[in-house]
Specification:
Layout: E1 36-42, E2 51-55, H1 61-75, E3 79-82, E4 85-89, H2 93-102, E5 106-109
Parallel strand pairs: 1-5
Antiparallel strand pairs: 1-2, 2-4, 3-4
Length: about 110
């Protein structure tokens, strides 16, 4: 425990007192082979523009951002990661699905 961490609790006269360890709320890294991702498109609330959405990712936000960046780079388009979903500009369902399968994820393509 760092000295800065000790500043956040009050002094105790109990000789057996030990500060509680905080649990991390970040989910653990789940291997790609045990994840099932859903790739679909959405047009609503986007001014008529189509967005490819990847749902179902389980893991920390850092890993989600890395995966999103990989998909955006390989598709050559923009996008973002938000609320546990990856948004890719345009209809790239087939390309995104094949990239995810190459990375070891189980993929389901939804939509028309």
């Amino acid at each position: 425990m760092d000295w800065k961490d000790k500043l956040s609790f009050a002094y105790s006269t109990n000789p057996d007192f030990k500060p509680e360890e905080e649990d991390s709320n970040e989910p653990e890294i789940v291997p790609p082979s045990s994840q099932k991702l859903i790739v679909g498109i959405e047009r609503k609330n986007r001014g008529g523009k189509v967005v490819t959405i990847v749902k179902g990712f389980v893991g920390p936000n850092d890993e989600l951002n890395k995966l999103g960046k990989t998909l955006k780079t390989k598709c050559g388009v923009g996008g973002s990661t938000k609320d546990g979903e990856i948004l890719i500009q345009g209809d790239h369902r087939q390309k995104v699905a094949s990239i995810l399968q190459d990375l070891g994820y189980k993929v389901v393509i939804s939509g028309k």
